[in-house]
Design brief:
- The protein is an alpha+beta fold.
- It has 2 domains: 172 residues, Sandwich (Peptidoglycan synthesis regulatory factor (PBP3), Domain 2); 226 residues, DD-peptidase/beta-lactamase superfamily (Beta-lactamase).
- 30% of the residues lie in helices and 29% in strands.
- It is built from 12 helices and 22 strands.
- Strand 10 and strand 11 form a beta hairpin.
- Helix 6 crosses helix 7.
- The radius of gyration is 26 Å and the shape is globular.
- The N terminus is likely disordered.
């Protein structure tokens, strides 16, 4: 309880920013000279700052560096060697425990070994679909027709017939809850036209996420040559999928009934979630099980406790019961040893930046992503935050353009940086806009 109180106090301190007083323009300045100055040099604006503020002169917007500094060792990132020295091992070929907020690896066992993932593959399948929905390219209310190819899939399935129609929401329910292979093919064909193109998109997305030990050959993880990934790569794509799971109950629903079959021949098909951790571990939020003789029992699970979400991945476990027990053991370890401090949510305003010759002339610098800092228990008060806001920025500025950085320190040593971006677009001010702005400051 005491530790949670400390974290809450820290979060409040991190998000409180002071506002500097607006500079006064000398009212006796003649209008003609003031207008020349206004057109040539811009105006003074309001600036906000966190406990410490530094400004960086970067000149024109084209000089803005958009790449985020590589993470340093410390609170933001824990080496895999620390996980390997955690005092326990996992009964499986490979395992990873990752903090979903920061991406820090808390435990690792053969984390980058290339192994068959079985149906855990479907995390990438579901990710591509939900990203397309988020972009408006697909809708969960879309009607999709089951193809001959989809209906012919073996293994786990919804037993759908060729020509049968379902909403994409029903198809995703089958993938998430019962690992339906026929549903995977149906979703892939809707998304990309063909399964082959969809698999190409899976591999492209994997590269974008930094999944260096992964190659997908199919959408569902059925045994096939050259289809592999690693426990660490699975954690990476699970972290990405978790951005979308909160809006859908497929991942946490234990049982559900849907109607399958051609018109006039429909039957009720009962779905029972393959993720037994939903019944065994409080706070479980997903994600996906898998099994083949070659891969063994695999699992990527997620759970939340207070402000922290953890991802536990295990590959090649000897039994279903063991994989869930080992996943729970990893989660217990993570929740017991670490705390997550939510510094800012995506879009939270952090400071204000003056834009020369812009309308508006002052805009908020906002967090470009959700920022969570992982710390060991008891270390929350060692974290401090500074902001560095770019100066001499001139319009136009695009919404989302980087205009500063949030610097995270532990014991005064920098451990991480995050981009601060323009909360809104800024257009170049006209002479009329400059005149109006000047008059408001003179009044």
């Amino acid at each position: 309880m005491k530790e949670r109180k400390r974290i809450g106090q820290l979060r409040k301190r991190l998000l409180v920013f002071k506002v500097m007083n607006r500079s006064k323009i000398i009212k006796g300045m003649c209008f003609g000279l003031a207008l020349v100055v206004a057109v040539g040099g811009g105006f003074m604006g309001v600036q906000q700052f966190s406990p410490t503020e530094r400004s960086i002169d970067i000149g024109q917007p084209s000089a803005v560096v958009t790449a985020v500094m590589a993470k340093a060792s410390g609170a933001a990132e824990f080496a895999e060697s620390e996980g390997q020295n955690s005092g326990f091992s996992v009964d499986g070929k490979a395992a990873v425990l990752m903090d979903a907020g920061s991406g820090a690896v808390l435990f690792a066992q053969n984390a980058r070994e290339e192994l068959p993932p079985a149906s855990v593959t479907k995390i990438m399948t579901m990710l591509l679909i939900l990203e397309a929905v988020d972009k408006g390219q697909l809708s969960l209310s879309d009607t999709v027709t089951v193809s001959e190819r989809a209906a012919s899939m073996g293994g786990s399935q919804m037993y759908m017939e060729p020509g049968e129609q379902h909403t994409l929401d029903e198809i995703m329910t089958g993938i998430a809850m019962v690992s339906a292979n026929d549903a995977c093919i149906t979703a892939a064909e809707l998304h990309s036209g063909t399964v082959e193109i969809f698999v190409e998109n899976m591999n492209k997305r994997a590269k974008e996420l930094g999944m260096e030990n992964t190659n997908f050959v199919n959408t569902n993880g059925l045994p096939v040559a050259n289809h592999y990934t690693s426990a660490y790569d699975i954690a990476l794509m699970s972290k990405e999928l978790l951005q979308y799971t909160g809006d859908h109950d497929w991942f946490t629903t234990w049982q559900k009934t849907i109607s399958v079959g051609l018109p006039g021949k429909e039957t009720e098909f009962g779905l029972t979630n393959t993720n037994r951790l939903l019944k065994q571990y409080p706070g479980t939020t997903g994600l996906k099980t898998g099994f083949t003789q070659e891969a063994g029992y695999c699992f990527a699970g997620s759970a939340v406790k207070e402000d922290m979400t953890l991802i536990a991945v295990i590959l090649g476990s000897p039994s279903s019961q063991i994989r869930f027990a080992e996943a729970a053991k990893m989660l217990d370890y993570g929740f017991a040893m670490y705390d997550s401090v939510l510094v800012a949510k995506n879009g939270d305003p952090i400071g204000a930046v003056e834009i020369q010759k812009g309308t508006p002339s002052v805009i908020n610098a906002a967090a470009g992503e959700e920022i969570s800092i992982l710390v060991k228990k008891g270390d929350a008060e060692t974290i401090t935050v500074e902001q560095e806001l770019y100066t001499k920025l001139r319009a136009p500025i695009e919404k989302g353009q980087q205009i500063g950085e949030l610097v995270i320190k532990q014991n005064d040593a920098e451990i991480d940086r995050y981009p601060l971006v323009a909360e809104e677009a800024v257009k170049q001010a006209s002479i009329k806009d400059l005149y109006i702005h000047l008059m408001k400051n003179l009044i």
